[in-house]
Write a structure and sequence with these properties.
By secondary structure, this protein is an alpha/beta fold. β9, α9 and β10 (228-231) form a beta-alpha-beta unit.
C-alpha cells in the first residue's frame, strides 16, 4: 500500500527522473514528503515561471522530459510562461499541479482552476488523476506523450486528497520511447532529388536531435558539399566553423544568405517548422506553396503539410533520419562544387564583430574576447531582447547542447535556464546573457543559483530600456517615447546582496578582467555592462532608426 504522493515519486524514479524543479505548495505536500526518501534531486525555485523554464531547459538539453511541480491557482498560472515556451519550442516537459480536493471541485474553491480548459492551448495533453491507483498509468502516459511525435509539455493535476490516499497500485514501469523512422524509398528519393539539384540548401531545426545525429548530418553535408543553416535559436545543431555552415536562419538574417535560400532550387528542412520568424514572415519559404522543391522531415505527421506543402514528406525524427542517411561517396553536381565554401566564407565575414560603435563599451570587442576565451563546450543561455543579437550573430556555436534560448521569444528565460544547465553540466562554463529588462523578469532565480552553489556568469547588458520595443517605437513613431524607459538597480551590488559576485563594466577594457574575476570567484556572478542606448543594434544606432536611415 502506497500513498498517492509516494506513487507519483515511484513513477518518476521508474521513468529515469534525475532532478525536478519546484516551488512548494500545500496542495502537494504528500509528494514533497515522498521526495525525502527518493533519489531525485530537487531544485527549489523562487517563482513558478522560473521553475518551469528550468524544466524546459533540462528537457531541451537532454531530450528527456523536464519535471516541474507547482501549486494550484497562482502557482500554476505563474508557470504558464514556461509551459508556453515548451510548447512553441517543442520541448518535452511535464508540469505537475497540486489541485483542490475532489469534494470541493466545481465550487470555485480556494485557488481552483479547471486546467483542462485553461491550459489546453499550451499543452499536448492536460489530465487530472482522480484515482490514486491510476497514477502509474497517467505518469507513464505523460512521459510518452511529452516525448513522442512533436515533443511538448504535458500537464497533470493532482487533487490533494488523491495524493494522501493509500492504495494498492501496480508497480510503475518506464515509458517506451516511440521512434519514427523514414522509409527506404523515401531516403532513396531524397538522395536522388538532392543529387539532381543545382542549388540545394539544408535548414536544421526543431527538437529530437542528439549529439550523434548532429555528427551524422555534418558528415552527410560534407560528402555532398551541402550548405547548411540553422533555424532561429537552434544554432547548436551544426558546428559554425564547419566548411558547410552558411549561417543563422533567424531574426536579422544575413541578406546574402536570405537571397541564397530564396534562389535555392531545393530546401531540405529537417526537424523544424519554419514559422514566420525563421522564414522572414514566409518570404524565404512561401506558404503554402514554396517556390523551391521542399523536402520536409518532421517527427509529427500533423506538421507535414500544415504550413508548407512539401514535394517529399518524410515522417521521421531527426535522430532516426540522420541514422538512415546514405553513407556513399556521391559527389554534388559540378555547378555547386564551390557553393558551400562561398557561403561559409560569407558567414565568417558576417559573424565578425564590429570594432567600434557609440559609447564607452564596445559589445563587438566584448564578443571577440569571449570567442577567444570561452571553451567550445560552454553553454550560452538568453531570453529575448536586442542584446541577444550579439550572441546569435557573433558567437560561433561548436557543438550540441551548448545553447538554450526560447524560439517563442520569451523574456526572462536566460537566468533560469542557466541554473538548470549548470546543474546538468556542472563541469562546463554556463554564460547567461540578459538585457536589463529581461533580467528583471526572473532575476530572483539568481538566489537559486546561490543556494545551490552554481557558479554561472550572468552578463547583464544594461541600456535602461526595453530595447527591442524602443527600436520598433522609434521606427514607427519617431521621437514619441512611451512606456519603454527603465529604472534599474545596481546589478553588481544586487549580486553581492544575494551572496554572489558582482562586477561593473563601464569601459570596454574593464570586461576581460571582470570576467576573469567572476570566473575565479567560484560563485554565481553578475557582470553589469553599461551600454549606450544608441548602440541598439550592431550596425544601426537609435538615432539612425529614428531618422529612417
Amino acid at each position: 500500500m502506497r500513498t498517492g504522493g509516494e506513487l507519483i515519486v515511484d513513477a518518476l524514479v521508474a521513468n529515469g527522473t534525475k532532478r525536478l524543479f519546484c516551488v512548494p505548495g500545500e496542495s502537494y505536500l504528500a509528494v514533497l514528503d515522498a521526495l525525502v526518501d527518493a533519489d531525485i534531486g530537487v531544485t527549489v525555485c523562487r517563482q513558478e515561471g522560473g521553475a518551469a523554464m528550468m524544466a524546459d531547459c533540462w528537457g531541451r538539453l537532454t531530450g528527456e522530459p523536464g519535471i516541474c511541480f507547482v501549486t494550484r491557482g497562482p502557482g500554476a498560472t505563474n508557470a504558464s510562461a514556461g509551459l508556453h515556451i515548451a510548447r512553441q519550442d517543442s520541448t518535452p516537459m511535464i508540469l505537475f499541479i497540486g489541485q483542490v480536493q475532489r469534494e470541493a471541485r466545481e465550487r470555485e474553491a480556494f485557488q481552483e482552476v479547471e486546467y483542462r480548459r485553461a491550459f489546453t492551448e499550451f499543452a499536448k495533453w492536460v489530465g487530472e488523476i482522480d484515482d490514486a491507483r491510476r497514477i502509474p498509468e497517467f505518469v507513464t502516459r505523460a512521459f510518452s506523450v511529452a516525448t513522442s511525435g512533436r515533443p511538448g509539455p504535458v500537464v497533470l493535476t493532482l487533487p490533494e486528497d488523491v495524493l494522501r490516499d493509500r492504495v494498492d497500485a501496480p508497480a510503475p514501469k518506464a515509458y517506451t520511447r516511440v521512434e519514427t523512422y523514414p522509409g527506404a524509398a523515401q531516403m532513396e528519393e531524397m538522395e536522388r532529388r538532392l543529387l539532381e539539384a543545382k542549388r540545394p540548401f539544408a535548414i536544421l531545426g526543431g527538437s529530437r536531435w542528439s549529439e550523434q545525429a548532429v555528427s551524422s548530418f555534418a558528415s552527410f553535408a560534407e560528402r555532398h558539399e551541402l550548405p547548411v543553416g540553422c533555424s532561429f535559436r537552434r544554432q547548436m545543431l551544426f558546428d559554425h566553423l564547419h566548411p558547410c555552415y552558411a549561417g543563422d536562419v533567424g531574426i536579422g538574417i544575413n541578406p546574402a544568405l536570405a537571397e541564397e535560400i530564396r534562389n535555392a532550387d531545393l530546401i531540405l528542412l529537417v526537424g523544424g517548422r519554419m514559422s514566420e520568424m525563421p522564414s522572414s514572415n514566409y518570404t524565404l519559404l512561401e506558404s503554402p506553396y514554396p517556390r523551391q522543391t521542399l523536402i520536409h522531415v518532421h517527427p509529427d505527421a500533423s506538421e507535414l503539410g500544415r504550413v508548407y506543402r512539401p514535394d517529399l514528406a518524410i515522417n521521421a525524427s531527426p535522430n532516426a533520419f540522420c541514422a538512415a542517411l546514405p553513407k556513399g561517396d556521391h559527389n554534388p553536381p559540378p555547378a555547386g562544387a564551390d557553393r558551400a565554401a562561398r557561403l561559409h566564407a560569407g558567414y565568417r565575414q558576417w559573424s565578425k564583430p564590429p570594432s567600434s560603435g557609440p559609447g564607452q563599451v564596445q559589445m563587438g570587442q566584448v564578443m571577440t574576447w569571449l570567442e577567444d576565451n570561452l571553451a567550445e563546450d560552454a553553454i550560452i543561455t538568453n531570453g529575448a531582447g536586442n542584446y541577444a543579437t550579439w550572441v546569435h550573430r557573433f558567437h560561433r556555436f561548436r557543438g550540441f547542447a551548448t545553447q538554450a534560448a526560447p524560439t517563442s521569444g520569451s523574456m526572462g528565460y536566460g537566468l533560469p535556464a542557466a541554473v538548470a544547465a549548470k546543474q546538468l553540466f556542472p563541469e562546463r562554463d554556463v554564460i547567461c546573457f540578459a538585457g536589463d529588462g529581461c533580467f528583471m523578469m526572473h532575476g530572483q532565480e539568481f538566489a537559486t543559483a546561490v543556494k545551490y552553489g552554481l557558479p554561472i556568469i550572468v552578463v547583464v547588458v544594461n541600456n535602461q530600456m526595453y530595447g527591442t520595443i524602443r527600436m520598433h517605437q522609434e521606427r514607427d513613431y519617431p521621437s514619441r517615447v512611451s512606456a519603454t524607459d527603465l529604472t534599474n538597480p545596481d546589478f553588481a551590488a544586487l549580486a553581492r546582496a544575494y551572496g554572489g559576485h558582482g562586477e561593473s563594466v563601464a569601459q570596454t577594457e574593464d570586461f576581460a578582467p571582470a570576467f576573469e574575476r567572476a570566473r575565479a570567484s567560484g560563485k554565481p556572478a553578475i557582470i553589469e555592462i553599461t551600454l549606450d542606448p544608441e548602440a541598439i543594434t550592431p550596425t544601426r544606432t537609435l538615432s539612425d532608426i529614428r531618422g529612417g536611415s
